[in-house]
């Protein structure tokens, strides 16, 4: 990925000696906007990176602390989601550039720089939960609704939330269930 906006995330490795280095970056809204179809559009985070270079590999520890703005799946309200991510990456020197696994890349000895933007974006994206809930919903039980709403397509069920037998309904069975029961009995 070669975005002009992400050139600031390059670390020139060809000038580095075999020792440890620290780099700091700042994530803001423009960072997320540089990625097509980004799940996140707003956020701020500080990224602290420790890079240890040796003869055969480069180890990079990335620490991300900040917040991103998410939309609650339940209420559709925006809320700030706190981030705290720590992840290690390894760049091994080899004959060709390729991904060895999710956290290990192979680069050539002629590689002049590594760009951390895509990795940081992925680490942030992976830290976001599948179910995004506003903090005010976090204490509610999964089966409990905020307002105690009962969902029904039947007006009588709304008047009778306990599911008690209605007068005029023999056996206390909902007529729909009664029909299904009759259908089941005819199949046997």
Determine the fraction of residues in helical runs and give it as a percent range.
Answer: 10-25%
Distance between the ends: 63 Å
Oligomer: single chain
> Mean pLDDT, nearest integer?
82
Question: What is the strand arrangement across the widest sheet?
Answer: 2-3-4-5-7-6
Please indicate the percent range of residues in DSSP E strands (runs of 2 or more). Answer: 35-45%
Radius of gyration: 28 Å
N-to-C SSE string, H for helix and E for strand: EEHEEEEEEHHH
Number of strands: 8
Count of helical regions: 4
Into how many domains do the coordinates divide?
Answer: 2
Segments where pLDDT lies below 50 for 5+ residues? 148-153, 161-166
Report the biggest beta sheet as strand number plus sense, adding barrel if it closes: 6 strands, mixed
**Shape label:** elongated
Q: Which class best fits the helix and strand makeup? A: alpha+beta
């Amino acid at each position: 990925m070669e975005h002009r906006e992400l050139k600031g995330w390059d670390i020139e490795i060809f000038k580095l000696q075999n020792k440890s280095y620290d780099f700091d970056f700042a994530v803001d809204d423009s960072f997320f906007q540089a990625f097509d179809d980004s799940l996140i559009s707003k956020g701020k985070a500080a990224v602290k990176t420790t890079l240890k270079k040796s003869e055969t590999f480069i180890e990079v520890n990335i620490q991300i602390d900040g917040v991103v703005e998410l939309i609650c799946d339940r209420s559709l309200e925006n809320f700030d989601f706190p981030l705290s991510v720590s992840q290690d990456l390894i760049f091994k020197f080899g004959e060709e550039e390729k991904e060895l696994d999710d956290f290990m890349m192979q680069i050539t000895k002629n590689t002049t720089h590594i760009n951390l933007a895509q990795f940081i974006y992925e680490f942030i994206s992976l830290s976001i939960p599948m179910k995004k809930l506003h903090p005010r919903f976090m204490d509610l039980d999964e089966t409990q609704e905020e307002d105690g709403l009962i969902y029904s397509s039947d007006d009588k069920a709304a008047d009778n939330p306990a599911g008690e037998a209605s007068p005029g309904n023999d056996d206390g069975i909902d007529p729909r269930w009664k029909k299904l029961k009759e259908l089941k009995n005819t199949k046997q």
